[in-house]
Amino acid sequence: MIRRNINSLQFIFQILIIVSCLNVNAQLNSIDHLENAYPTYFKFEPETIYTHLNKTKFLNGEEIWFKTYVYNNKTHKPYNSTTNLYVSIYNEGGVLIINKLIKTEGGIGNGNIKINEQFLPGIYYLQSTTNWTRNFKHYSGYLQKIEVVGEEVSSKENATIQTNKYDLQLLPESGTIIQDVTNSIGFKIIDSSGKGIVIKSGTVVDKDDKIITNFESNEFGMGKFSLNWEINNNYRVKVVLENENTLEKGLPIAKKKGISMVLENSNASSLFIKLETNNLTLPGLINNDFYLLMHRDGLLKKVVVKFEEDKLEYLISIPKSDLLAGVNIITLMDKFAKPISERIVFNNLVNPIKEVRLKNINHKKDSSIVRFKIDGLKDIKNNFSISVLPHQSKAYENQATILSTFLLSPYVKGNIENPSYYFKYSDRKVLYNLDLLLLNQGWRRFNWHDVFNNPPKVNFPFETGFQVKGKINNNDVKQDSKIVLSSPENMLHLNANIVDGAFTFSNLYIADSTSVYFSVKKKNGKLVKTPVYYTIYPRETLTILDTTGISLFYKRVPKTRMVTYNQDFLNPKDNNLLDTVILKATINPKNELYLNVISSRYINLSKSDFPNSLLFYEFSKYGFYVTKNNSDVYIKDRRGNATTTVYLDNVALYGDFAFLRDLKISEVEEIYVNKRVNTIHIFTKNVSETIKSSDNYQDVLVDYGFSIAKQYYTPRYNINSTDFIDYGAVNWIPNATTDKNNEFLIKIPNGQTKEFNLYIEGMGADGSLFSNVVNVH
């Protein structure tokens, strides 16, 4: 009897604990709690990445040219702190073919990848991502399907695929259908490849086969209809496709209680939200507060909703100027923060989208100069990438735009067919179809349970350049000695303290296939060559892309040849001991061809009275207009119009003068200026030769560093084939920037065709986004 009583007490005690936990959860999960938990869940801001390719179909021997933009969706600004971007290409089976590390600055970076013998004809995937994005479930970078064209692929293109497999989805706007209220029900139909199929005619019929309403779809197989679900009835949908195939599907069974939410977003200045309930539900809603939340990315606004006796319908008008810019997730919640209805809408009144306007075209004998104008933006630096292709090209297919990638993809589930369509024009039809897309994409991608219980954790650190960690195993090295790291090719000359034999260098810019030199600097300033164990982060790793499920999720596999580096520096025998390493990268010698201009002026800076002054200030003495800001240097002609062409050790900088911000006179041997043709040639002192010949340094070749983009070149196409018209490229301009008049121009060489399509993507320093397709002829 005593044991039975003990068991009974234990059972009662367990029940009390469960009830207590439920009460605690009920108290915690409240609107007040949500207003704190929601911003916390989005505290760590993911990077949203878009990579603009010059095209999506390539011929063997071509280059894949790309420009990547990194965006902060919460602030609608460039993600300026991002520097390390991984751009990888995988085959159709998810096996890594090639991997590049690209340096981004101000949220942008560009590069190129050669289509070599590794690329057989077939399907590939280009992914651009960062280490930081791995912390977030739904932000794993950007993925673009590409194709290497060959005979095998061309034959597939011509093959006609017959399929009768269709997926008809019926999606109530409120998430559920409620009896005895007006329900808005979205629908979409796709084939086995995920492409939308047009519905020529559709009907909703009741249990007696009586037609209740008629509908049809848009060109993407999407639409919506209204239905008042009568008690003790059920309904089916019948559709006839353009190919005369027919389908039939029953609607989900309606719930007896609930609140329907229908949104009307066609008004230019206001969003209208209609809430409706039935007589069975209303008594339980009286004297209970409900909330309409307008939110995304940790930003949240709310409106209190109170239900009244004998009132079943409520119309709420919200000015679009009060909504968040771009996407808004509208959620109806009760006081315990339980979602009842939800819908995603796009605020077309307030958003970061701006227009690029074609100003004029100047046709010359060998080329056409096309000038563009940006209206409404002043003193904002805008950066563009432009792909120029023949007008009839087949090579630019199914590529997302910067607008759809930044403003839509982070908030919807599933694939967006023809994403460029939704921002081509701002007319009523396009805006209506955009609203249909969001209606039929379901609820938000994150889980409300995770907001309260599982905020993201930082398991993968934010990477900024390279980090070098090392250990010196030499008893002769005193604690007051320093380690010196030099790399003239990367403009590095740094020193760090040695603590217990260990040292660290962080935030380094190291280019691929360049050399780094180490030496120990004693207290008296003498350099000593000392064995150093080292590791350079990040290290190249193999990755496998999951192409069977959600393609953006992947796993990392250590690359075999990197095991010689020891991460923890605990076991010297497993570390990489620096010894004699052949130096392969060298500074380019002077090329006299660059100097073969009669009017060039030679300037010897070796006798300058201010050797520690910044070099670019000197240019103003010789008739150039020089300005700077926190991130860039601008060098133009005397009138401040045309950008000066600057060569650094015979490498053209092409208007990107950020490298000159920290270059001192003492690091330069000589310069040549030519005001007539508006050029400057800079030759730096060849420090690498001095270091290389010194016995005080040890050197190592860095075989995995930032990839340096090449200057675009146009491949030679067979003029007797259709390759150029179908898949060829005319030009690729990765870094067009606006001048003080908010204009920029590009040059299109005249050749095999006189009509071109210009695919323009861009981002402003203020977060403005641009996407345009311009026809030039």
TrEMBL record:
It comes from the Bacteria. Gene3D superfamilies: 2.60.40.1930. PROSITE patterns: PROKAR_LIPOPROTEIN (PS51257). This is Macroglobulin domain-containing protein. It comes from Aureibaculum algae. The lineage of its organism: Bacteria, Pseudomonadati, Bacteroidota, Flavobacteriia, Flavobacteriales.
